[in-house]
Amino acid sequence: MLNELFPNVKIADLWEATGETFYMTLIALTGTFVLGILLGLLLYLTSKGGLWQSKSLNLSVATVVNVFRAIPFIILILLLFPFTDFLVGTIRGPNAALPALIIGSAPFYGRLVEIGLREVDKGVIEAAKSMGAKTRTIIFKVLLPESMPALVSGITVTAIALIGYTAVAGVIGAGGLGDFAYYYGFQRRAFDVVFVCTVLIVIIVFIFQFIGDFITNKLDKR
Amino acid sequence: MEQPTDGNITIDGQEITDLNQKELRLSRQEIGMIFQHFNLLWSRTVRDNISLPLEIAGVPRVERLERVEELIKLVGLSGREDAYPSELSGGQKQRVGIARALANNPKVLLCDEATSALDPETTDSILKLLIDINKELGLTIILITHEMHVIRKICHRVAVMENGRVVEQGDVLDVFLHPKQQVTKKFVEQVMGDKEQDDAYEFLTTSYTTGKNIRLHFIGETTNQALISRVAKEFDVEINILQGKITQTQKGAYGTLVVNIDGENNELARAIEFIKSTSVEVEVAPNA
Description:
The structure holds 2 protein chains of 2 kinds.
Chain A: H1 2-5, H2 11-46, H3 55-70, H4 73-79, H5 81-88, H6 94-118, H7 122-130, H8 135-169, H9 176-186, H10 191-219
Chain B: E1 10-11, E2 14-15, H1 21-28, E3 31-35, H2 46-56, H3 61-74, H4 90-102, E4 108-112, H5 120-137, E5 140-144, H6 148-154, E6 157-162, E7 165-171, H7 172-177, H8 182-192, H9 194-207, E8 212-220, H10 227-234, E9 237-249, E10 252-263, H11 265-277, E11 281-284
Parallel strand pairs in B: 3-4, 4-5
Antiparallel strand pairs in B: 1-2, 6-7, 8-10, 8-11, 9-10
Helix pairs in contact in B: 2-3, 2-4, 3-4, 4-5
Domain ABC transmembrane type-1 (chain A): 18-212
Subcellular location (chain A): Cell membrane
Keywords (chain A): Cell membrane, Membrane, Transmembrane, Transmembrane helix, Transport
């Protein structure tokens, strides 16, 4: 029955593409999480009244973040070709998409992290200081745990943007559902393939959103 | 937390204002602090909140759990160990705050408007806990507040601040009884209700024209003496109590009593002389 409705869809290939999309999303998400939290912390701590208040450092980090957020993702991939080649040794396949995916979404997530950290009650930070806590202790025992629901819902939003990016990366041969839909579907005029890929991507987005919401609710004890 | 513009701070013989950053940080572990808005971590349970200062001070896990257990009992939160702050009432949250502040056995406990966000009943129970801690642990408590009745109830000494300067200080009774500065008078009126009383006093002294109207100030332990009945028994005078208010403070009771004493001039003078010889302060109304 599936074969009648979607004559051009080869299940094995589709599975492989789905696997690649998951692979790219999860690895890039991990990298984005770490890099984004680093950027967000830097932005927050160096801001006015922060623990490491520094106008120059804050301005430099903010500039880098803003520049990378301003570059359209498709152009960022092209710009990063030399860097990717140096780092991964190839500019094709899922692994080659990772640097661009991480660099493209980490600044976005960094801003979300910064917003999340700003929501942490100043009084709680004051309390930790009054107990004689080091900055590192404040970061790991107060700032990050107290902003965790915001960090998780932020990474959920970022994950969904990332899934979109992986599809764009498909155009340069990164693999995954975007690639599959473009080369096997669009270019061969097999629109049933495009359709199935779309449905799968939507399902993946829903899965990520559901997991993200679930974890956020579990974490939030306010 | 804040850099003082002037003066110095000495705790237990240690000059705080001279310390470098690291020493200052470590010295903070010896100062407990509680806050108006409790400042608990919502992401941690009661137990974990109390445990935080111990984690910061690097206390090993087993010891930490023991100490937390002790503190929970001390502040009366047994059974609520695993609750999150959002599940607690204001009073319970402040108890967690107090337990947290006491965790590292501080040399002094700072209370920054600790009861200002609580209802009167809860305030009383928190103050009672603070008195117990003060007595049982022999811990110095510094309390910052604008609520005079809080000072009246639990403080021994008081300093009044205006525009960042201490303008008056001394024993609570002394300051409450003989406020010198304008701001102190304003504050003291709140709890003593002197203004209201003064109006009534004026009315009373003008309506009682025979005998003498006198105002008696009871300070400290003298309140326990049966002064009025002794005067009535020993001297041939009539005593009519017109108005009175006695308030309890940590240093004993403080109160004012307005009485009208009537009788023969001689007897009257002797009676007043007698009252003056006790530790009760006497103020004779001029128009009687």
